[in-house]
Amino acid sequence: MNVAAKIASPSRAAPYGHPGFDPISREMCGVDLVVEGELPAELDGVFLRNGTNALFPARRRHMFDGEAMLHMIEFRGGKARYSNTLVRTPRTRYVEQAGRNPFLGIAEMTSGGKSALLALMIERVKVRFGLLPRFTPIEAGNNGTAVLHHDRSLYCLQETALPFRLDVARDDDGWLALNGQGRNETFKGRLACPFSAHPKSDERTGAVYSIGQDFVSGTTHLSVLEKGGAIHTSTIMQGKPAAFFVHDYILTDTHIIFPDTSLRFNPAGLAGPDASVATFDRSHNLRFGMIARDHRDGDPVRWFETSAPGHIWHIANGWQADGAIHIYAPVFADYPATMPIHSPQEPHSRFVHWRLDLASGAVSERVLLNHHYERPGIDWRRHGVASRYAWLLDESGGVMGKGVLKYDLFNESGAGYLDYGDLLGGEPVFVPRKHGTLEDDGWLIDLLADGTRAEILVADAATMTPQCRIALPQPVPFGVHALWLDRTATDALITD
Ligand SMILES: [Fe+2]
Questions:
Q1: Is residue 496 part of a domain?
Q2: How far is the CA of 309 from the centre of ligand 1 (A)?
Q3: Buried (b) or exposed (e) across 105-143, using 16+ Cβ within 10 A?
Q4: pTM for the complete prediction?
């Protein structure tokens, strides 16, 4: 155990005033955990949860800002162990060593107005005169959004940045040991554009597909990482004003379908009434672009136009059937320029089914659930193909998730609800039972917290009943995305 940094009292300013957003300071390694209930013996592997954890207080808070911290719970032989580490990207190493965070964050960019504009100019002058490091934008990530397993390596992801490849080690007893060290991965200089926080893996080939959005230049990139190290990149489109985020998309056997939402990047907006570089443009209806998986520069994007503006963070699933592409996702009919994600100021989403007709190009839309669900979980082996179930995080409580709805996409009906009780969750991660045949044969794992304590909840994904609760040895801030790695994948990780 050691002390990561001295963390001053955090601001409790809205919209992140809930103590569950407060950062922590201790890094722990291999703490044995006490299981309350029955830990399924087949649950053998590692649960990794990424999220931001500011080392130093900022004038304004945003869930995207600060340094990143990775929380790891390893399950083996009926035992569970907890570790956590800062994700020590070049930017975070600088902040640690400097003892302060001099960089502007997304909070300033989405609510700071003219003062942020001035601060941005001062930051650029300091970089020019060597008073701040000269990171390129893709080198300057905190990489606190998601975790990727690809080709026997682990990466922390942030969609404005390069993937950060984590060093992996094991202790004397074979438990995984991470210290947050690693490197921004360019794959020998061949990756030079932002890498997605939601890349999609082809389970058969091991290839990973990323749509990376450079909202400043207005360029949208496709990057394909093949197993073994080959990389293909192409420019999907270029134009301004660009979508602020192309956060999630679907990968079918032949195509990638991505949303082009109404939330646009508008740097002039920082000096305007919204005081933000984000603008929800009601004249720009939500649309979906479709490209071939083997897209090359100059290949066209086929557009499917919806009839209303909207913003999408996450897509539950999508697939091709009956002459159409079907997409299921929570959509926001409006979105504040401050981007108050997972807070009481965030408007509620609706869960929608879109049908993109491949012959006519027409789009039909049906609202399946008029309720705030977000961060959907599915069996990721069934991504891009017809799948029955999605597990939807219930964010109707205003902050993070108060439970999970199991939703049957085929019958368009609820199939069970898991109440998180007095703690709040971040993402229901589905873990399939080995050799299971039914789609819901497995478990849901989520890290629950409230700012004073944290625990891992393991629930039966079929019956939506809790199996066990595992108290963690310290509070854990609300975070972002998680990853489950089974024992085979865990054991195959390349150690340095
Ligand atoms: Fe996400």
A1: no
A2: 20
A3: bbbbbbbbbeebbeebeebeeeeeeeebbebeebebbbb
A4: 0.95
